[in-house]
Amino acid sequence: MTGNVRINRFLAEAGVASRRKADILVAAGRVRINGDRAATGDKVDPARDEVRVDDEPVARIAEKVWFLLNKPAGYLSAVTDDRGRHTVVELLPPTPGLFPVGRLDREVEGVLLLTTDGDTAHRLTHPSFGITKVYRVLVAGNFPDTVIRALKSGVDIAGHLCRIIDAVAVASDQTTTTLELTLAEGRKHEVKELIKAVDRLLLRLERISFAGLTAQGLKPGEYRPLTKAEIGSIKKLTAQEPKDTK
Ligand code: URA
Known about the structure:
alpha+beta; Pseudouridine synthase; 8-stranded mixed beta sheet; 4-stranded antiparallel beta sheet; 6 helices; elongated; binds uracil
């Protein structure tokens, strides 16, 4: 056992079970590494070690793929659509198992990650990991500090207290205000719901950052692979088990 990937993560990435369930399999003595019974916290080298669960070999993990797409309007954040609408994967090189990390609404542009790494993608989108996203929003009218404070303290949306981390008004004219909102929640239509909750009209929505990554240099519809350093920083952000899994 010479590797650096924990056995629970290896099993999760191979699609065998979630990390927690993988821990249970290990504790129950159902996992073997190169023939030896695995213990909690053991590490494996995915390229070399032979892992078996209940005597069935677990396929070695293929290298995971990560892309950052500057999503254009008009594409669904999905792999396929039964109504034949365009989906974001059409904009990327054909890659088995590639899917978007979370979603941006169809008309929304901006930073969208796509990957074949289901375990890390799940962590990136789970509210308990608190991954930050920055949205640039154009709203009708003004957006005074009192409204920003209300959003920071939290507003009720369908029984959940939803709040923003920060809001900065970056431009305004007679009729509109442009703001950059930082959120760490990850709920469906969260920005639309928040703006509605404070009685404002949303005119335009764009995501300018996700987990610290931006679409700088990419026109809508363009993409790039993540660098090794970026993948490393995403792994770090999602390394801890969530404290609360509501
Ligand atoms: N919030 C929304 O309302 N829509 C998005 O696409 C992203 C965040």
